């Protein structure tokens, strides 16, 4: 069986069902039916406002965010859900940690739900660097159906790869 890199962490039966869906050419339909809505977050300024609004709603107390950008160079396969970096800056003589969030550019044209999923994931990393239970608790606090969303987001990336491969 060919591996499914996006679903490497999931149970074998789940991977099998995803593979069947893909091989039957039904991934696109499945995703379009479940996630019909696009979003209007077109540029970095809008992305920052979007991320900040989610943060204010759910994680007001966490580390300040100084930047949020779409990054066209992010390796979607390796960093399917963006990256998160801590940038230390000297401010008025003391070191201040502040964070920036980078979202892979593929999410600019993805369904609204997947941009949200990606942002929720990165916001949770403001408090938890590992993918542990506390991390996923934060994710489901922000998006109650986070686990389903992350899974479907991975299907979306898989579908994207499959359709660009079939066009070459
Ligand atoms: Zn992560």
UniProtKB/TrEMBL annotation:
Pfam families: YgjP-like. Coiled coil: none annotated. Gene3D superfamilies: Metalloproteases ('zincins'), catalytic domain. Residues 93-153 form the YgjP-like metallopeptidase domain. InterPro entries: UTP_pyrophosphatase-like, YgjP-like_metallopeptidase. This is M48 family peptidase.
């Amino acid at each position: 069986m060919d591996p499914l890199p996006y679903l490497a962490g999931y149970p074998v039966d789940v991977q099998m069902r995803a593979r069947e869906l893909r091989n039957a050419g039904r991934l696109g339909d499945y995703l379009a039916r479940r996630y019909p809505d696009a979003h209007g977050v077109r540029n970095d300024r809008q992305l920052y406002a979007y991320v900040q609004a989610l943060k204010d709603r759910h994680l007001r107390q966490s580390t300040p965010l100084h930047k949020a950008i779409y990054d066209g160079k992010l390796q979607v396969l390796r960093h399917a859900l963006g990256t998160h970096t801590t940038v230390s800056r000297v401010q008025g003589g003391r070191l201040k940690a502040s964070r920036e969030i980078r979202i892979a550019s593929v999410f600019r044209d993805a369904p609204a739900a997947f941009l949200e999923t990606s942002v929720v994931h990165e916001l949770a990393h403001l408090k938890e660097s590992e993918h542990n239970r506390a991390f996923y608790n934060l994710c489901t606090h922000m998006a109650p159906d986070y686990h389903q969303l992350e899974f479907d987001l991975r299907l979306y990336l898989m579908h994207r790869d499959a359709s660009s491969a079939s066009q070459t």
